[in-house]
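Our example pasted here:


***
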Amino acid sequence: MKPIKLLLSVLLIQVSLITFAEPRISLELICEQVKAIEFPTQDRPDAKTIQSLAGCNSEALYYGIGQTADWQKARACAYEEMRRGPEGPFQGPATLMMIYANGKGVTRNYDLAIKLACEIEGAPAEIEGRLEHLLQMKQQGAEAKDIDLCDDITSSMMMNFCSSHQESVQQQERAAQLANMVKSWNENEKKALDGLKHSANRFFSTRSEKEVDASGAAHLAMTVGEEASLQDDFLASLQSFEKGHTPNFDDQQLAEADAKLNAIYKKILGDKNFSWGTVYQNSIKETQREWLKYRDAWVKFGSIKYPAVSATSWKTYLTEKRIKMLEEFLN
């Protein structure tokens, strides 16, 4: 997924899709020129197909979220969403814009993609940036890379939407990698991993909700981003352990890590002037309780899957990670 752009200046659009006497024109004029373009009759769902589209979600169908990606169904669903009114920013005209611009199951049609981009609600700079993006794709032709709705966002609102959307896509990718990794594990090992994942999800959720400053306009993007980072690290750790790179610490190292963690924790809770946006000392206490459960869950899982690794090693490994989290509040 391409990085989210945080800032775009208002752009004057260079027209290559449609020929005008003047080389640079306004957003309104671009949208007016494509307004009369018709949707291909053969692309619209027929009555029988519409009956099967009740409750469909073109975003999920296009990206393969919770199911196999199906661009034909995504297109039909998006047309139906336009008729009944899309419920989210990735549905209806947004999905169709990507389908026609990227040629997913159809011939690329940039005129129609621009018409659809004009119908997507958003900040003026977002719309203008998206139109310029489409015009550049038209110039590049077959060499053009696919466009995504999140490529040209400028507002905090869309940053929040895109963060949640991108995490939904990444969850699918993580789940596929994890399933491939554990397919040779025995049932006891898989059951132990399920228990660890349950504890991990509770800790990750609490950490992202309680220890991330949510005072800014892009608060959802911040919390989603933190949880995604924790999930990525969890998977990467398991993959590393499967390659034989398991932790190895002794009792002295655990004692040192515990002492450092406790010192930082006490310093945070004892700070009468503690101020970290929407993060409070009680929030950190609550997160710490979940972390302790998460640490112990790793010890239990490790005893089954990696019996050669000591409980001391697991505790030290997790404690060092927690120290880095808490050190953020000392800066």
User: Anything to note?
Assistant: The radius of gyration is 25 Å. Residues 1-25 have pLDDT under 50 and may be disordered. Residues 156-330 form one domain. The chain has two domains: 13-152, 156-330.
